Amino acid sequence: MMADMLGRAWLWAAEKPWVHKTVTQGRLTEPVVKRFIAGNELEDAVRVIKELNSRSIGGILDLLGEGVTDADGAQAAADDYLIAVKRIEETGIDTTISVKLTQLGLAFDKGQCIDHLRRIAAEATAIDAGVEIDMEQSGYVLDTLDVYRVLQTDFPGLRIAVQAYLRRTPVDLQTFASVRPKVRLVKGAYAEPEELAFQKQKEIDAQYKFLTEWLFEKGTDPAMATHHSDLLAHAKTTAERTGAGKEDFEVQMLYGVRRDLQEQLAKEGYRVRVYVPYGVAWYPYLMRRIAERPANLAFFLRALARG
């Protein structure tokens, strides 16, 4: 309960200008940024993924940025994703690409967003690289699902993230039951009101477990995006019950979080991918990572204290 309150308090504080200035302009927080962000450039992320691959761990390449408000910005983001696809082909790294649809214009032109994502998915499919659609704030859920619905037929390997803390998620998933969707199950990290999202960790965990069972029974190649041992244990048990082997689902984690567990699972033969963010627009992402776990907040505060 206390951890939930601290997380919500941090997300509230993160919107304050002085917090933004302290984090983005102060050298005191550099250790925190470096822990969770690969770097400002694509090549920083490529380097990190190469190192992960050397330990039998795959990558998920994430260009940071969201909430683009004009066509030129959406085009620029799409071009950056295409450059990333080309770099994957050149280097041969094992990685998928994660895309935020508000980077591609979802907030103001869904058609343009679909066109951009279609091209990215086509180029990635041509080099056998997967594409994953991130899920953003609750206000974008319906449009994000619509985009996935439009493109999933042509690109069945397209994976979409769904958020366990949203009350609507079981119903949303059920609408895709006939196509056995390919899903990344995440907890959810945006500040949402109680009427839309569970606030207590035990409620979120209960829904996460329910959705895990749904995905193993009615989905395709589910991805469990969590660092929590209890939720991972439930996924393993569910896999055994439904006849899924270690290669039939993925465990996805964040760069800089539970690195010991990432390596342990890979050594045990599980498919592990690590979400590797890069780019200059890292502030919103970093604030959500700090809010998610008390250990992350403690790490941040220790970095400030050392200054």
Summarize the structure in words:
The protein is an alpha/beta fold and 307 residues long. The protein has one domain (38-281): TIM Barrel (Alpha-Beta Barrel). 52% of the residues lie in helices and 13% in strands. It has 13 helices and 8 strands. Strands 1-2-3-4-5-6-7-8 form an 8-stranded parallel β-barrel, surrounded by 6 helices. Helix 12 crosses helix 13. The longest helix has 21 residues, at 71-91. The chain starts with a helix and ends with a helix. Mean pLDDT is 89; it is low at 303-307.
CATH class annotation: Alpha Beta
How much of the polypeptide forms β-strand, as a percent range? Answer: 5-15%
Total number of strands: 8
CATH architecture: Alpha-Beta Barrel
**If you average the pLDDT, what whole number results?**
89
Write the layout of secondary structure elements.
Blueprint: H1 2-14, H2 17-25, H3 30-36, H4 42-53, E1 58-63, H5 71-91, E2 95-99, H6 110-126, E3 131-133, H7 141-152, E4 159-163, H8 169-174, E5 183-186, H9 201-218, E6 223-225, H10 229-242, E7 250-254, H11 259-267, E8 271-278, H12 283-292, H13 294-306
Parallel strand pairs: 1-2, 1-8, 2-3, 3-4, 4-5, 5-6, 6-7, 7-8
Helix pairs in contact: 1-12, 5-6, 6-7, 9-10, 12-13
